[in-house]
Amino acid sequence: MNFYTRKWVKPEDLNPNGSLFGGTLLRWIDEEAVIYAIVQLANSHVVTKYISEINFVSSAQQGDIIELGIEATNFGTTSITMRCEVRNKITRKTILSIDKLVFVNLNKEGTPTPHGRTEITYAYVGIDKIKKDE
Ligand SMILES: CCCCCCCCCCCCCCCC(=O)SCCNC(=O)CCNC(=O)[C@H](O)C(C)(C)COP(=O)(O)OP(=O)(O)OC[C@H]1O[C@@H](n2cnc3c(N)ncnc32)[C@H](O)[C@@H]1OP(=O)(O)O
User: In angstroms, what CA-CA distances link 65 with 75, 83, 107?
Assistant: First the structure.
């Protein structure tokens, strides 16, 4: 699993108890996962379809540095399934885990369309190769 994104937990990210707000963390994960899906499927028109059980394992506090990890676990016909783990960068303690995030590859009309991908792309995919809607 690659931990590409690091976040520094700031005052505006906190809930009234002073720990990292769960909704903020989920927003960061959705964003991270959609970028991962766009790169893997080489298409900018992908949407979040399904997110499985979310396990908030431990909390993060102001000042903590956390990192978000995403890994593709299955390439379907029109979908990609990923798993996610968030951990404290310093202690490596798990903060959250999600077993399944499913994103669907869409065409210009917004209909699910085959992506033709079968395995993880590790090499850099040029941004010019990512299909964008016109
Ligand atoms: C890096 C450079 C970028 C440059 C460029 C930037 C562009 C920057 C763009 C940003 C983009 C932001 C995007 C953000 C992410 C949102 O915020 S997306 C917003 C939230 N999501 C939505 O609004 C989606 C709403 N849902 C839908 O529109 C429809 O459900 C969908 C997605 C079109 C799918 O329709 P459907 O009838 O369920 O389709 P169906 O053919 O039955 O299934 C499609 C696939 O989903 C799977 N599936 C269906 N239901 C389920 C389920 N419950 N569980 C698991 N899998 C399921 C199916 O098995 C199938 O997969 P395959 O077997 O083909 O692999």
Answer: 31, 21, 37
95 in Cβ contact with 86 (< 8 Å) = yes
What is the domain count for the chain? 1
Q: Is 14 in the pocket of ligand 1 (CB under 6 A)?
A: no
How far apart, in whole angstroms, are the C-alpha atoms of residue 108 and residue 77? 17
CATH of the domain at 93: 3.10.129.10
ipTM value for the complex:
0.93
CA of 126 to the centre of ligand 1 (A): 23
Q: Look at residue 8 in the predicted model and tell me its pLDDT.
A: 97
Using most ligand atoms within 8 A of CB, pick from 99, 101, 104, 134 the residue to mutate for ligand 1.
104
Residue 32: which H helix or E strand, with range? helix 22-41
Q: Is the pTM of this model over 0.90?
A: yes
Q: Is residue 124 part of a domain?
A: no
